[in-house]
Design a protein that fits this description.
Layout (H helix, E strand, L loop, with lengths): L7 H17 L26 H17 L26 H17 L26 H16 L4 E3 L5 E3 L47 H17 L28 H17 L52 H17 L28 H17 L56 H17 L28 H17 L20
Antiparallel strand pairs: 1-2
Length: 528
């Protein structure tokens, strides 16, 4: 394996470290000796209890006094949980029974019994023949490009006295350390955005009142002063000026290489323009930038039909002849590799697919008639019983039910609430298509409640304990224990914004009012 010398990053790191040692007059050394232990038994100032702890203790004392009960905590070992107690057997779960029934039906339908085995499976194949297709076409191409570049470039590669491969003429190479800035550009360059200057729609350079230092800063300064008095030392925040700008140590790539797809696209475009003898130029007016977007269409329940774009003449050519550059090199390489492989294994690969005896999709078992949920079954039975008792068939007219299939362009929109609330749509009242306030028959206790009562009775007999559900009347409504903030304070940013707005209106002698016609609501969007 050839020796290319030290890695570029290792060389750069060693050079930077050597330069830093020279500037700071300090030799960086590494030691594997056991380091000194961390300091212990040093003085720690006592600033007293934290204000949150004090507040919590005060709230706890107030609550204990209000409820006449002292809260106590114990660190004694809790009683162990009960073990070896009798557990009644209610039989298999309904889902297990249903799963076993379904499995039995499927096994009978397909005449196959499903079996599970925990034996060790056979290992994967190994030590089999792998054909040698030679070097990958990308490696071959890279070697070819490297050879051509070495012939064209003034930079050559040679071995030094130690046998390392090093480039000659390094003074012609731009290193990452020479990059001064980090331009954020596209592959076309840094000229895609030319912003026009215009008058700002909001005031600038206006006076801002000084409300003094923040209370947190004042408290920190007081705590720092107290700590300095306790330890007898003043904390000096003065920072020494560094010899160089630390940001210059960051290596930026000022000239990144284009992506391979971009290079191919630009080459193909250049070949096409040469063959067609036509330069493809896109007018700036034909490009839609973000500043020209009017709104983001919000689809309603009837679909994204509220915006139908008008058709106009395309700003670019279509249906033009495309030159044929022949088979792609990857396809050619695959064909050559396939031919070599067929010669090695002595077999020609036939891609002809045999017609399957049946549609493979039919092997998938779909449940065309799934069972209804238990709640749906109960609801349908109760509806049927009610209709029988009242001798009335409940029928919903199709005109009274709005289905997705019946939503057309005549509908206005699906109400989308704004920050002002869902007030843009006030539904009209009309006669209900179904009866209300009719007598409901009493079918007795639900079967789930009956089963629970029976299970509870059995459990009480087993444990010899009767469960008393009587709840003692609390001294006050438990809901009153929850503290709700009926008038929360506004966020500081909102307070500042409102104050700044008021000050600006006062200074400009103008009241800022938004007319309802100037605000576009969801209700204003109509379909075409």
């Amino acid at each position: 394996m050839p020796n290319f010398g030290e890695d570029f990053e290792v060389t750069t790191s060693l050079s930077d470290m050597k330069e830093a040692e020279k500037k700071w007059g300090h030799k960086l050394s590494a030691s594997f000796k056991t380091p000194k232990g961390h300091p212990v038994d040093y003085f720690v100032p006592n600033f007293g209890l934290d204000h949150e702890i004090l507040t919590s203790q005060s709230d706890l004392a107030e609550a204990q006094q209000k409820w006449g009960h002292e809260m106590q905590a114990s660190f004694k070992a809790a009683k162990p949980h009960p073990m070896n107690y009798f557990v009644p057997n209610f039989g298999l779960d309904q889902e297990i029974i249903a799963s076993q029934d379904h499995l039995k039906q499927m096994e009978g339908k397909f005449s196959h019994e499903l079996a599970a085995s925990f034996k060790t499976p056979k290992g994967h194949p190994k030590d089999y023949f792998v054909p040698d297709f030679g070097l990958d076409h990308e490696i071959v191409t890279s070697q070819k490009n490297l050879k051509e570049a070495e012939g064209k470039s003034p930079i050559s590669i040679a071995q030094d006295g130690e046998g390392n491969f090093v480039p000659k003429g390094q003074q012609n190479i731009q290193l990452e350390s020479n990059v001064e800035s980090d331009p954020i550009c596209s592959s076309a360059g840094c000229n895609q955005f030319k912003h026009a200057h215009k008058k700002l729609p909001y005031p600038v350079d206006y006076p801002v009142p000084d409300n003094g230092m923040d209370h947190d800063i004042v408290a920190n300064d007081a705590s720092l002063k107290a700590a300095e008095g306790i330890v007898g030392k003043k904390w000096d925040f003065k920072m020494q000026k560094p010899p160089i700008n630390p940001a210059k140590k960051v290596l930026y790539d000022d000239g990144p290489k284009l992506d391979g797809d971009i290079v191919d696209s630009r080459t193909n475009l250049k070949n096409t323009e040469t063959k067609q003898k036509h330069k493809l130029v896109l007018d700036h007016d034909d490009l839609q930038v973000e500043q020209q977007l009017e709104s983001d269409p919000i689809c309603n329940s009837s679909g994204c039909t509220q915006y139908l774009h008008k058709h106009k003449k395309l700003p670019y050519p279509v249906d033009y002849p495309v030159p044929d550059f022949g088979v792609d090199k990857d396809i050619k390489d695959n064909h050559e590799d396939l031919k070599i492989a067929e010669g090695i294994v002595g077999k020609k690969w036939d891609f002809k697919l045999l017609k399957p005896p049946v549609n493979p999709a039919k092997k998938t078992i779909y449940d065309g008639a799934p069972k209804l949920d238990g709640d749906i079954v109960d609801s349908r039975q109760n509806l049927k019983d009610t209709e029988g008792k009242l001798r009335h068939k409940l029928v919903l007219d199709s005109d009274d039910v709005q289905l997705d299939a019946k939503v057309d362009l005549g509908t206005e929109s699906d109400p989308i609430c704004s920050s002002a609330g869902c007030v843009q749509y006030l539904h009209k009242h009309k006669k209900l298509p179904y009866p209300i306030n009719y007598p409901v028959p009493n079918f007795g206790v639900d079967r789930d409640i009956i089963d629970n009562g029976v299970d509870l009775k059995v459990a009480e007999g087993i444990t010899g304990h009767h469960w008393d559900f009587e709840l003692l009347k609390p001294p006050v409504n438990p809901a009153k224990k929850t503290i709700y903030d009926g008038a929360p304070k506004l966020d500081e940013d909102i307070i500042d914004s409102r104050k700044n707005l008021k000050a600006t209106e006062t200074k400009l002698n103008h009241k800022f009012v938004l007319d309802s016609d100037d605000v576009q609501l969801s209700a204003d969007i109509k379909t075409e």
